[in-house]
Amino acid sequence: MPRLLAIDYGQARVGLAVTDPGGTVVFALRTVAWETREVLFRELLGVIDQTRPERIVVGYPARAGGDEGLTGRQVRNFVERLKRRTAIPVALADEAHSTEEAAERLRQAGLAGRELAARLDAEAAAVILERYLRGGELCCDPSSSASASS
Questions:
Q1: Cα distance between residue 99 and residue 63, in whole Å
Q2: Considering the entire predicted model, what is its pTM?
Q3: Helical spans, DSSP H, in the chain
Q4: What is the pLDDT of residues 41-74, one digit of tens each?
Q5: CA–CA dist 82, 36 (Å, integer)
């Protein structure tokens, strides 16, 4: 399996995780705090250049019933912008409860308060990437349900 980069997209922070070059071990990488798209994409493209992934995995908030909520549309819009800036293939993976799972892992590791908050988004990206490695990408294109919910 090739090296992968995971993104846990958020409106203020983006968590990043990466696999080893063989694509089998996942590492929480860092969190990017951002205020403008330019800052965000400049940071992301720098990480992409540094890590050289063969695929980017973005957490997507799949919802029961297949409808797409506001967060889903925001993630899909982010993915479209990312695809315009890089030729690396982008896949979506279910991010359901990834933040809660990441917080629990960090608490078990003895982190709390600001330390936990500082690492939470990157750890959530690691959870998303581990899920992707176990089960692959989402089975359907979430944009197909966007017109039904508009």
A1: 16
A2: 0.88
A3: 37-51, 70-85, 98-108, 113-135, 146-149
A4: 999 999 999 999 999 999 998 766 666 788 899 9
A5: 14
